[in-house]
Q: What sequence folds into this?
């Protein structure tokens, strides 16, 4: 937002402070962050290893479109699917 030609910035709490109070919203927000974090990690590891989505998908025995949907961060991922992708990327799924 601009005011008198200057950009105004807001802190996270100023934007989400009241919104984060309901438990349902906090839970949904936390789940969404986790999904986006996993998607980013898969994409980063895959590209670092110079693998295409198709190569990962073939090695994990799934369609390339599954990898694309996961990396978009817009779709959930089952633990089984995550494990198959992790194995292809020579990683291990760990809950921290």
A:
């Amino acid at each position: 937002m601009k005011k008198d030609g200057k950009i105004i910035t807001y802190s996270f709490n100023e934007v989400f402070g009241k919104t984060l109070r309901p438990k349902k919203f906090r839970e949904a927000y936390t789940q969404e962050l986790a999904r986006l974090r996993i998607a980013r990690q898969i994409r980063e590891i895959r590209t670092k290893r110079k693998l295409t989505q198709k190569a990962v998908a073939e090695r994990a025995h799934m369609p390339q479109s599954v990898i694309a949907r996961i990396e978009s961060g817009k779709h959930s991922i089952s633990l089984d699917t995550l494990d198959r992708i992790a194995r292809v990327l020579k990683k291990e799924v760990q809950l921290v």
Notes: The chain has one domain: 15-88. The radius of gyration is 18 Å.
